[in-house]
Amino acid sequence: MSAQPFEDFDHPFRVMAPGHGPAPLPRPVGPGLALDTANRDVVAEARDLGLLYGLAVLRDVPFRWMHDSHSELRFEGAARITLNGVERELAALLPEAAVRPCCRAMLGALTGGPSHRRSVLWSALRGGAPAVAPGDAALRPEAGAPVSAWMRWIERHHGARALPEGRQAGVPRSLAELAARVAEDAPAQALLGAALHFLDRGVALRTGTARGLLALLCEISDRAARRCDRYQPRRARPGEIAARLTLLHAGEPADAVPDGVLMGAVLRRMTARAPRLLVRIGAMNASAPLSAAMPGPDGEPCTGWSPVAIRDTLTLPPLVVMGRPLHPSAAQSHALTAAALASALKEVMDLGELEVELDRLVHDIALGQAVLGGTWPDELRDALRRGAALGRAVVATEAVPEDGTPCADRAHPATLRPI
Fold first, then answer.
1. Which domain holds residue 391?
2. In-domain check, residue 416
3. pTM of the model
4. Of 319, 347, 372, which residue sits at a domain end?
5. Phi and psi (nearest 5°) for 30?
6. Do residues 175 and 211 both lie within one domain?
7. What is the superkingdom listed in this entry's lineage (predicted)?
8. Confidence category of residue 97, pLDDT binned at 50, 70, 90
9. Are residues 200 and 334 in the same domain?
10. CA–CA separation, 311 vs 324, rounded Å?
11. Angle of helix 260-273 relative to helix 238-249, nearest 10 degrees?
């Protein structure tokens, strides 16, 4: 295998074949791999995958450090890099000149929001998985059930409850902790917890009762779950695209990889514009347990089927919590559900300044979903738009039930107070 260094860096990506020593990865070659900056698909793929790579690199950086561009990031097997260095390379992948090379601005742009600021509502929200699967409606309160019955049902099925006065919950301190919290929670848990917090604080309702509001929110959550179940993504998953780039970088010909010509152009664009970002991703994968298929214990040649063992890869590094890697699709429905519930809450409750914190909570949830690596940024923004439209549509077409009866079960909706 020919040896050719990865650009001019001290830590090249390497490939190891059975029975051979480590050798530097060759640069991708093959017909049609020339960089085409005018190709929108190439620019979009490089931009979106670059943002997900950036989230992986930044996920362990405390939020309180993100305002300091001189903060250093250290990775085993790779040279140090500052936040400013990551920001510059991410900015090079973004065709929008209006986006400032600032971590908080890019985190906000990723979910379609303003410069990122963590919501203060996290301190009022209880974490932890629900006791019963959210889709099991066997114990759903009947019409006329008191508010306490709805609160017990929400706690059991959605894991949400109001914290006692004076107590505060733990607040995510980094992107990694935010993603782990989002993956652990039920899809509607944070927003239902926020609704209970608002009611506990005495936030006024524009219409209906607390019992009716909780019933309406639970119905919106059920509708959002059904809509997410029916959703079929049109793009290959980020992990699949990252795996294709890994194979091309290992020297596989373009015709052996799906969309190989396009993927080769994406890889060349990222190599040219964000080379240090790729080095950091390779270092993160190399330092993770079982990150690569080595030829065998103690380095002896592998006798099984192993045509090539990639030592450092461009795959999206999994987020490991308590020794267990989280699945990239662990929170696929959370952003849409959160947006739908937040939209309904803003229509029904007089939130005032709390509305800003509610929006920040929704964008936090979307950001946590993105950190897991299973959703493209444009899919997140689309999910937030579809969720907000769903919440507004339900509130506009349904009335807030006074007795807690689910909207679909009400025989005479005209007798109820409309929004």
1. 120-233+329-409
2. no
3. 0.79
4. 319
5. 135, 165
6. yes
7. Bacteria
8. very low
9. yes
10. 21
11. 80
What confidence tens digit (pLDDT) does each residue in 279-292 have?
889 888 887 654 44
The residues that bridge with 125 in the sheet, in sequence order, are 162
Structure tokens at 22: 């480590």
- At 12, give phi and psi (nearest 5°): -75, 155
Dihedral-angle region of residue 383 (phi above 0 means left; psi in -120 to 50 means alpha; beta otherwise): alpha
pLDDT given at position 136: 56
Same-domain pairing of 144 and 21: no
- When pLDDT is averaged across residues 345-354 and rounded to a whole number, the result is 92
Tokens of 365: 């949830």
Sign, CA torsion 110/111/117/119: negative
Residue whose entry in the numeric block shows the structure tokens 């993504």: 233
Of the candidates 371, 306, 362, the residue with the CA atom closest to the CA atom of residue 339:
362
Angle at 14 between CA 12 and CA 16, to 5 degrees: 165
Kindly report, residue by residue over 324-346, the tens digit of the pLDDT.
888 898 888 999 999 999 999 99
Position 254 in a domain = yes
Token duo for residue 85: 């260095």
**Pairing mode of beta strands 320-321, 72-75:** unpaired
Strand partners, 174: 62
The residue written with tokens 């609704």 in the block is 195
With contact defined as beta carbons under 8 Å apart, do 180 and 326 qualify?
A: yes
Instruction: Indicate the number of domains in the chain.
Output: 2
In the beta sheet, which residues pair with residue 23? 15
134: number of Cβ within 10 Å: 21
- On average, the pLDDT of the chain sits at 77
Tell me how far apart the terminal alpha carbons of the chain are, to the nearest angstrom: 70
- Strand duo 14-16 + 309-310: pairing: antiparallel
Q: What is the dihedral of CA 372, 375, 380, 386, to 10 degrees?
A: -120
Place of tokens 């742009």: 109
Q: Name the token pair of 283.
A: 């270092």
Query: Tens digit of pLDDT for each residue in 11-64?
Result: 334 444 433 433 333 344 344 434 344 467 888 899 899 999 999 988 988 888
Where do we find the tokens 């596989």?
A: 252
Q: What is the pLDDT of residues 102-160, one digit of tens each?
A: 677 778 877 877 778 899 999 888 876 676 655 555 577 876 788 888 888 888 888 88
3-state secondary structure of 136: coil
If asked whether residues 141 and 266 sit together in one domain, one would say no
Q: Looking at the structure, tell me whether residues 144 and 95 fall in a common domain.
A: no
Q: Which of 265, 284, 319 is the last residue of a domain?
A: 319
